[in-house]
Amino acid sequence: MLEVSIFVSYVILSIALGLTFVRLVIGPSLPDRVVALEMIATLTVGFIAVYTLSSGVTAFLDVAMVLALTAFLAAVGFARLITKGGGVHHD
Amino acid sequence: METLMAFVVGGLFAAAIYMMLRRSIVKLVIGLILLSNGANLLLFTQAGMLRGAPPLVPLGATQPEGVVADPLAQALILTAIVIGFGVLAFAVVLIHRAYEVVEADDMDQMKDTDT
Amino acid sequence: MTRELNIQSLILRSASQLLLPLLLMFSIFLLLRGHDEPGGGFIAGLVAASAIALHMFAQDIHQAKRVLYADPRDLVGWGLVFGVISGVPAIFKGQAFFTSQWLEFTMPILGKIKVGTPLIFDIGVYLVVVGSVLLILLTLAEAED
Amino acid sequence: MTDVVVSLFLLIGAGFMFVAALGLLRMPDLPMRLHATTKAGALGGGLMVIAVGLEFFGDVAVAARAAAIIIFIVLTAPIAAHLIGRAGYFVGLPMWSKTLKDELKDRYDPQNQVLLSPGEVSSEDKPDRDKAE
Amino acid sequence: MLLAILSGFLLATVAPAVHRQTGMNSGWVLAILPAALFLYFLSFLPAVGSGESIVISYPWVPGLDIQLSFLVDGLSLLFALLISGIGFFIVAYAGRYLEGHKDLGRFYVLILSFMASMLGLVLSDNLISLFVFWELTSITSYLLIGFNHEDATARRSALQGLFVTVGGGLALLTGLVMMAVVTGSYELSEILSSGDALRDHGWYVAIVLLVLLGCFTKSAQVPFHFWLPRAMAAPTPVSAYLHSATMVKAGVYLMARLNPSLGATDLWLILLGVFGALTMFTGVFMSIRSTGVKQVLAYSTVMALGTLTMLIGVGTDTAIMAAMAFLLAHSLYKGALFLIAGILDHEAGCKDFLQTGGLRHALPITATFAAIAALSLGGVIPMFGFVAKELLFEAVLEAPSLSGLLSLLTVASAILVVAVAAVVGIKPYWGPRVETPKTPHHEAPPAMLAGPAVLASLGLLFGVGVAMVDRGLLSAAAGAVYGSPVETYLSLWHGFNLPLMLSLLSLVLGLTIYFNWDRFRTATGFMDDLKRFGPERAYDKSMDGLVSISEWQTRVLQNGYLRYYLLTILLSTVALVTFSIARAGGLEIQMSLAGVRIQELAIVAVLLLAALVSVTTSSRLGAVASLGAVGFSVALIYVLFSAADVGITQVLVETLTVIMLVLVLFRLPGFLGLTPQALRIRDAVVALAFGVMVALLSLAASSTRFADSISEYFIRESEPSGFGRNIVNVILVDFRALDTLGEIVVLALAAVGVYAMIKLRAEDNRK
Amino acid sequence: MIGPLAWNILLAMLWMGFTGSFTGTNLFIGLALGYLVLAYALRGIPAFANYATKVPRTIRFIGFFLWELILSNLKVAYDVLTPTYYMKPGVIAFPLEARTDGEITIVANLISLTPGTLSLDVSSDRKVLYIHVMYLDDEAEVVKSLRYLEHRALEVLR
Amino acid sequence: MRPEVALPVVLPLLFGAISLALWRYRTAQRVIGVLGTGTLLAAAVWLLLATWRDGVLVMHMGNWQAPFGIVLVSDLLGAIMVVLAAISGLATAVYSLTAISKRHEHYGYYPLLHLLLAGVNGAFLTGDIFNMYVWFEVMLVASFALLILGGERAQMEGAIKYVTLNLVSSAIFLSGIGLLYGLTGTLNMADIADKLADVEDTGLITVIAMMFLVSFGIKAGAFPFFFWLPASYHTPQVAVSALFAALLTKVGVYALFRVFTLIFTQDVGYTHEILLWVAGATMLTGVLGAAAQYEFRRILSFHIISQIGYMIMGLALFTPLALVGGVFYIMHHIIVKANLFLVSGLVYRLKGTYELKELGGMYRSHPILGLLFLVPALSLAGIPPLSGFFAKFILIRAGVEAESWWIVFVALLVGLLTLYSMIKIWAEVFWKAQPEEHANRPAPGPKGTGVMYGTIAVMAAMTVFIGFGAQPIYLIAEQAAHQLLDPQIYIDAVLGDRS
Ligand code: NA
Ligand code: NA
């Protein structure tokens, strides 16, 4: 039962990753890409959760913990950049 | 998986090199980042890839149960990542300063030094 | 837009007041348990540096510096000194450099505790990482302004 | 029993993740993409982490970490969304053509570096001066 | 012995101080050393004259078989006596000639070092120490030629001399090393007794060519003769003499020295004979074509060097004896004439023979000794020069082969030499008085007259009393060159024979030329045009060529374009690796995608696509964002394959990198489409080639495993010995703490670097 | 609020010490028991009385919020998953009752977390929150529900 | 336990750390700068003597047995390199007392110097291939920072090329390590050598050897990888240039020596033949590059390349004598090249320019400096009896014995062309009269040049000593070469005699 769910979850997440990636590629603006990047981080948390279930090793939750915090930092950085007027005029 | 990773590594190297061959110094830096990722993954691949077996000793045990992933390679990669980060930080600021001085994101305007 | 907008986000600013201690706690947690679980001086240092960096983005450089209190260059220097020094005691016991030296305590409640030079080393790593990353980020941010 | 619950959480979480990703791709402008990722993403991630917590029920370390992850997500996701959405607005990204109204329009005052509330008028930015320019 | 040779260098180091102390008498004071040396070497004469040879050895670099060993036999003693004896007059003479010159102190340093180097050269038994002194003469000579260093011509001439002689010297070194490899020794005394070892070895031709290249360049043999007259840029006739008549004989010395081991073959005879004869004729002909005092003398020196070379090449005992006699005679008269030229310059300021005349009244003593020296040069009986010339004719007439050619050239040269002798001995002093730049008021001072007087007189003395030098010194020297005692002895009068006839003929024809000087010069004027095709042109061309090649290479290789540097490096790598793979007969590769999970495939796909996007996007920040995606994917790979710490680190570093890029890049402009399509394709091909190469290597290395990993040890020992359950961290802070220490040093350094880069600039901007 | 909470945690610690079991479940029990003891014993002290009422309120609020979260997420999910767009987006100015920075931040973030609304910025005078709304069919209705959310949140916070 | 093995690494690390911690106190940094490098020299000499007396010394860092922990190994080559590093470090530190401005000191000059030395010494002493990578990076980043200290445009442009190409080198190095680790599962170089010794199919190893060849070739500045060097070495503070010129490329050369004598000796006929071609091309391109230059330090920079070729030639010929020559060459070159740069710095100090065409008249005005220039310059060109002569002589003899005629020819030709460049400098800077139009160029002036003179004089004295006292140097080089040619000595010392 759980194995099937894990597999299905992996598939769903993989598709989601693909969709997110398309947004990352097509943009069109930098903020859109940043959102996509955030989403990738969130998806990574999801992957790690599934992986933890499938492997039974909980150590990887630490990675998810750090991810949850730092992906946010990247977004803050980008937001600051955009707000300060960088990267838009030339995009 | 090692086969797949070989493609990944090769792809990263190729992308890195293509970027480094551009005239833009920003692309140069992006190339450096990709390059360092490629080299790290190569090392990772060479250590053999194992799913779900982190090199951790369970509480109360003296050794992990069963086979675990190669901790040495992981330690090396960790070191390499950190070193790469330090170097990259320097490189990023360097291109920033170079841009300020040269006032162009163009390597072709940075060739007077040589000749 | 003719002029640069430079309005700080109130939400971010006040959230950072909460996130800063949270992140710092998290970083110390990662540092101390690194020997047994994922973590360690380097990771912890990066998290701590991120915390201050967040503060810098949310507030300003001066606030970040005030929070950090120490000059990052001092952190780097003394962190390195810690790191190197931790390898030296062994030499007085006639062992090779960086031979780890352990002290075992038995403390009430906490039980047996082993303290060793690797921990001092890890703390050195932590300080250097915090100092270096922040030195870079703060300098860059200052130059940007 | 546990398996079923865990699976449920996992699959629903993954489902929301998918919704978030699809929303990110399909939604016509930045704020709406943010809607999708922030909410569905956070919820999806949270549910999946809860699944992990349930699987290892009774293991404090896992429960604590699962809780920490959820707290971090809940704390950071809305702030990030706010910052990005605001940044997008700052730089004047176009909104979807079917957007009904925009009360934030022209409320940023670059002169004084403030965001005005509705009805508030910048002292230096009188309408007649606008006309003169 | 070592002290004797090094004393010159030692005195050189204090010479300026001595000069300051003793003022105008410094020349005499410093000349004490060469005088003492002369006497010291003279003390060897009895032993050496009776056929002994003395070897004295001091260890230097025994590991390389390099000793400071010295060989005193007839040949080296002859040279040592000439060097120290003439050195005495030179130093004394210089003190007066350059009196008041601001660089006289430095001049002493150079001249004394030069003398010491020459002594070392001719006395060395060890080939390498010989070479050391050889090169030292080149360097000191360079410094002497360029003594007037603010004059561009002097610098150029000095460089030319140096370049030619050092170049030849390097060939010589190779030859010497090869000789040593063949004979197993660097000691001349052993090599000379090695019989036919060298002649029979397969390297013989190469050795001869290399050694001769060294000797020919040093001794200004055709076609390397051009540097020598140029060397007359040297400030004074003194130094001019030194390296035109002394240093250049180093080459002759070495040919003579090696004659027993290398000589007596057709190759040797032809090379030395032909080149020597050509040099002889070219030298004297150019001498005739010149008018500058030093030029004439220098070219006549070239002639003498050619003669000596030719004689050594002929190699019969008569020839060798002739060579030794000619060597001595030449040193005496040429020394006198150079010093006299110096007097002419010093007293009358004359630098061109055509601009002089009638000086006999003002400079009677000078005129007298000039005449005596010129007679010896011209080979007029009873001068020692005559003795030498007679023997020369005899030697070439008896030459085992090429006799006709050599004789012809010798006679032709002899004729011209007579004319030259007349020009230098008669022209300045006789005939009507010609206005000179300076009007001589008095005769030269004794210090300057002593040399010419003694040297010229000796030319006469040895002529009349041939026996004085014949049976001790010269026969010993000739014996050393010949390899066994020589049977030929010198005499002033051989009776009426062919050589005497030729002597008379040359005298008559030579004087005829002198009296028809102008007509002769006009008739031969066309020869000057030939210079354009001469070896000097070749030298100039090759120097220009060197600079052009250098500039071309810099344009091509060091062109300033980073991407071409990269391209070169990468292509070289690919080439090296591909070639090595091909040589290894391909690599063993096992490929399998079995067991790859869907999520892994997805992540890998995203990773690669993100990398592709970051490469192809036209948006700078889009590239950064894609880079973030690459970073997260890589982190996920780490996590999925059991590397938690690495995953965390990757995530954190990725984030900080993004933040840093964001802080730095926001003022930078966007990407410009700078590169044409074709170049992009080229770069893509190179990049792909490199990528494929790395992938192949990765596959090959994954498919091969020679041993198990040492990480088993860490897994086993982490908890028990490292007291930690996170094995990766225990490795980092304990097992391999040194790595981690280095790693944080890197980080600290990067931070300091960044800080300095930005702050130092900011400080500058404020100023 | 901090003082009572600290007391509560201290009591939980003591409980674990007494029982000698340092597990998560036991901590939870300790906390619950501690809360009950405090709520009962110190109900005369205002701070503790306040604490006593706030804890269930907080728990209720969390429940309410989660429910809202899931409900409106489904709405967005439906919109995302079906081919046609039903969105009627717009940016509205929402006058805030929250006053302190902390309150404003929490309210704004809660609003952002609920589907359909996204806090874009706070006016510099802190009176207005600009919100991007996804379904602006009935603005009054939207403002009303936002107000309700704000009220419940402030109840917990104050 | 032999502390001397680790001291050359630990001491500069410690001094670097302390002077970084004391960044506020300039005087303290200066004092630590000189005392620290002085102490380092003492420790280095101690190590050399100990290694000379007792053979290959090993310290198992952290007391973890080889091949598991990191070992520091001092064989004679390593010990020699450490001594040379210490000498150039001390010379630089002393010279810097007056040559480096207050501002630069304030921004970390001395800590960078110490840590650079730590990196260099770490690379020389480590017996672990990955640890070598780490020290390479330490050295590299320290050199990055030193390179840009000053922030001028030329520095930036030069640094970008320097940084990029060196990072490419690092990436290739790291990849090579990964591949080697994949094959052997170990990082300890002795262990790698040991495990590869029994391998029959050596094709893949040779292929991987090429990666190391390229990586170290870049670091060493060999053909065709040297581009970063002429692009950057003339841009930093001259004391820094001197240190770089002395040390950095030599680390690459050292690494080539190490891996191509210890690890990659499976197919010498192939790998070392390639090295020989690299050597020849390096010599030629380096020396030709210099011929067109008219800037003091650029000429010197190009000559670093040509000289590197000689060292590689020693390795490539791979006979006992050739290795002696290579080692001797390294020793000679570090002293001489550092000194030439120091001279250029003093000239700049006095005249305010590095352009030969603007310089002149210094033989008249500074005859002592002229002499001090001639000693290293002629030595570089291989004029006897200075140090360079013996270095070249040994190589030529080795080449002749190996009957590698073309390389002998190239070596000699390059010697001649080196002389051409040195004489060009001599003629332009010292002999030629100073051109009128450049006579009054502003220059920092002679204040404090005494220290610089002193440093240069001591280095020149060493050059003369290596020439006249070539025997002891030769003996050391010979012993070092002996150890290199018999890797079993190294392996046994590190892993213990397991037979
Ligand atoms: Na660490
Ligand atoms: Na909402």
UniProtKB/TrEMBL annotation, chain A:
Does this entry carry the keyword Ion transport? yes
- One GO CC term, this protein: plasma membrane
InterPro entries assigned: MrpF/PhaF-like (IPR007208)
Q: Which UniProt keywords apply?
A: Antiport, Cell membrane, Ion transport, Membrane, Transmembrane, Transmembrane helix, Transport
Coiled coil start-end = none
Which compartments is it annotated to reside in?
Answer: Cell membrane
Topological relation to the membrane, as annotated: Multi-pass membrane protein
**Taxonomic superkingdom:** Bacteria
Which Pfam families is this protein grouped with?
A: MrpF_PhaF
**GO molecular function annotation:** sodium:proton antiporter activity
Q: Where are the transmembrane segments?
A: 6-26, 33-53, 59-82
Family indicated by similarity:
Belongs to the CPA3 antiporters (TC 2.A.63) subunit F family.
**Name of the protein in question:** pH regulation protein F
Organism of derivation: Ectothiorhodospira haloalkaliphila
Which taxonomic lineage is given here? Bacteria, Pseudomonadati, Pseudomonadota, Gammaproteobacteria, Chromatiales
Automatic annotation (TrEMBL), chain B:
InterPro entries, sorted: CPA3_antiporter_subunitC, NUOK/Mnh_C1-like
Q: Where are the transmembrane segments?
A: 6-21, 28-52, 72-95
Q: Which domain of life is it from?
A: Bacteria
Q: Name one Pfam family in it.
A: Oxidored_q2
Which Gene3D superfamilies does the protein's record reference? 1.10.287.3510
Where is it localised? Cell membrane
Chief subcellular site?
membrane
List the GO terms this entry assigns under cellular component, sorted alphabetically.
plasma membrane
Q: Which UniProt keywords apply?
A: Cell membrane, Membrane, Transmembrane, Transmembrane helix
Q: Report membrane topology.
A: Multi-pass membrane protein
Family annotation (NCBIfam families):
PRK12659.1
In the record, the note on similarity to other proteins reads:
Belongs to the CPA3 antiporters (TC 2.A.63) subunit C family.
Q: What is the protein named? A: Monovalent cation/H+ antiporter subunit C
Species assigned in the record: Ectothiorhodospira haloalkaliphila
TrEMBL record, chain E:
Q: Tell me where it resides.
A: Cell membrane; Membrane
Give the keywords, sorted: Antiport, Cell membrane, Ion transport, Membrane, Transmembrane, Transmembrane helix, Transport
Enumerate the spans annotated as NADH:quinone oxidoreductase/Mrp antiporter transmembrane domain.
Answer: 124-406
Query: Which ranges of the sequence are coiled-coil?
Result: none
Q: Where are the transmembrane segments?
A: 27-48, 78-95, 107-124, 130-147, 159-181, 201-217, 238-256, 268-289, 296-314, 320-344, 365-385, 405-426, 447-469, 498-517, 564-582, 594-614, 621-641, 647-672, 684-701, 740-758
Q: Does the keyword Oxidoreductase apply?
A: no
Q: Which Pfam families match?
A: MbhD, MbhE, Proton_antipo_M, Proton_antipo_N
Give start and end of each MrpA C-terminal/MbhD domain.
606-669
A single GO molecular function term of this UniProt record: antiporter activity
Q: What's a GO cellular component annotated to this UniProt protein?
A: plasma membrane
BP GO terms, sorted: monoatomic ion transport
ATP-binding as a keyword of this entry, yes or no, is: no
Q: Where is the NADH-Ubiquinone oxidoreductase (complex I) chain 5 N-terminal domain?
A: 63-108
Read off the InterPro entries from this record: CPA3_Na-H_Antiporter_A (IPR050616), EF_Hand_1_Ca_BS (IPR018247), MrpA_C/MbhD (IPR025383), MrpA_C/MbhE (IPR046806), ND/Mrp_TM (IPR001750), Proton_antipo_N (IPR001516)
Give membrane topology per the record.
Answer: Multi-pass membrane protein
By its UniProt entry, which PROSITE patterns does this protein fall under? EF_HAND_1
- Boundaries of each MrpA C-terminal/MbhE domain copy? 680-759
Name-wise, this protein is: Cation:proton antiporter
From TrEMBL, chain G:
Protein keywords: Cell membrane, Membrane, Transmembrane, Transmembrane helix, Ubiquinone
> Which residue ranges traverse the bilayer?
6-23, 30-49, 69-95, 107-126, 132-150, 162-183, 203-228, 240-262, 274-292, 304-323, 329-348, 368-386, 406-431, 451-477
Q: Does the keyword Transmembrane helix apply?
A: yes
Q: What is its main location?
A: membrane
UniProt key word Translocase: no
The record, for Pfam families, names:
Proton_antipo_M (PF00361)
Limits of the NADH:quinone oxidoreductase/Mrp antiporter transmembrane domain:
127-417
InterPro entries documented for this protein? CPA3_Na-H_Antiporter_D, NADH_UbQ_OxRdtase, ND/Mrp_TM
Q: Which residues form a coiled coil?
A: none
Give the UniProt entry's GO cellular component terms. plasma membrane
The way this protein sits in the membrane is described as: Multi-pass membrane protein
Q: Where is the protein situated, by its record's location annotation? A: Cell membrane; Membrane
Query: What GO biological process terms are annotated to this protein in UniProt?
Result: ATP synthesis coupled electron transport
Name the Gene Ontology molecular function terms of this record: NADH dehydrogenase (ubiquinone) activity
Matches recorded under NCBIfam families: PRK12663.1 (NF009306)
The similarity annotation says: Belongs to the CPA3 antiporters (TC 2.A.63) subunit D family.
Q: Which protein, by its recorded name, is this?
A: NADH/ubiquinone/plastoquinone
